[in-house]
Design brief:
The structure holds three protein chains of three kinds. By secondary structure, chain A is mainly alpha-helical. Chain A has six helices and two strands, in the order αββααααα. Classes of the chains: A mainly alpha, B mainly alpha, C mainly alpha. At the A-B interface, α4 and α5 of A face α8 and α9 of B.
Amino acid sequence: MKRVFPILAILTAILLWYAMSIALNPEIHIGGITLNGAPTEQTMGNVQRIFYYHVPSAWIAFILFFINFFASIYYLIRRSQAADIVALVCAEVGVVFCTVVLITGPIWARPVWGIWWTWDMRLTSTLVLWLIYMSYLFLRRFSSSGQTPLMAAVLAVFGALCVPFVYFSIWFFRTQHPQPVMGGGGSIDPRMLHVLLLNWLAFSCFAFLVCWWRYRLEVLQREVDRAHAMRSLMDEPNQLRSAR
Amino acid sequence: MNHVPGSSGGVPTAGGQEIGVSLQPQKIVRGLTRATLLKDLRLEWRSKDAINSMLFFSLLVVVVFSFSFDPSAEESRQIAGGLIWVAFLFASVVALNQTWARELRNQVLDAYRVSPAPANSLFMAKTLGNFVFVSVLEALMTPLFIAFYRLRPLGPAWQLLLVAALGTWALVVNGTFFAAMSIRTRSREIMLPLLLFPISIPAILAMVQATTSILNGEGARFWIVLLVTYDLVFTTSCLLLFENVLNAE
Amino acid sequence: MSTNPYLFAAYAVTWIIHIVYLATIFSRSARLKREIEELKK
């Protein structure tokens, strides 16, 4: 790993710690300084603070899936190995963040609405996105390696094309069958916005570092696979000789 | 009589005759599509293998659903839309899974790849063939559902036909495409539904909601427009990208 | 700040998921390094 990675990791860890502190506390005291955190919400109380983890995770998942879409298109046009790895990495990390959204959502819904699940716009579209990209990851795992990048890129394009349909269909479904709305529609208190954006920044840095690490792992993995393949090719005459 | 396909524009069919097509590209595509489709339908008609097992499977699905969900006539109008389309979904997966089985067994795909024939013709022929198969299944399952659930549509019934056609096409066009993608995977049969279902969710929602609305006498205009758009977008994507799937080594 | 159990669960689950994923990357990375050592021989 390059030297810059550990430094960035430590900085990100500090940022994450700070972001979490201001998300959980209305005020934090460092040294002699008092810093403002997120105020307690009027109707929901402290449970609302899940918002500061739930929403940034959703944004990051969507951004990562977006990058996956562009990387897949680039692969279809240029057949670039790097684009293929970027697509894979973004899909994996995106699914991780998506999972976080899908689990924190019900944990938030339960005390507020008394139900574990609601066909809310964000939760439902996140669920469908999660399903689409899980199927993408399954295809990656189950496909035989020669044409996996191509098949996966095609599937990613289909998945991305599906997204507007998901939004429209769920939007209309919800107007016909009104559901509880999660996550504070309407204007947001500026202090809450500040905490929200800071958590988003912190998690974005975190996501970037995870993707970077995963990218390097994949590059290394493919080199090792190629080395294995070369070795078995070169060993073949020896194996044939010993078989006789 | 051996002809190199595409040389004189002639395409040999299963019956050994030749369909003469002119060399204009559109006519080639249409001619090839028609030839492949007729060949598939003819083979199916002669062997009746797949169609018989799928028919029986569809019947089983209807009966099992009827045992599992036994509502009153009023309630059934609310849930019948969902039940019918889930049943159709399972039946179409069974049909789609064997789409490319015959081609695989006889190395037809390799021959197709080598020939100058456009990949789109093969895809359209397969999709149209699947559409016919699944429509036949639906036509046979629907009277059973109407009988078991005592259904009577309160809305315009012709819209139900439109929804059925659009919905079936949505399932079949993506299903044929993903079936071709699944060929090169381990666990071929499970891969198709794994890939098909998530992408089809907006279409399934539309089909179910449209059917339920029509059964209850409400309009389904939004859902029909959504289905038309979905069908257009995904048919175009499948046609554009099928070449890549066919030619993948 | 009173510790709401749901709040605690949500934050805990988030970090558990991330840590599990990081752990899988780490173990794959370690296994890969061992393979490289073997290949070099």
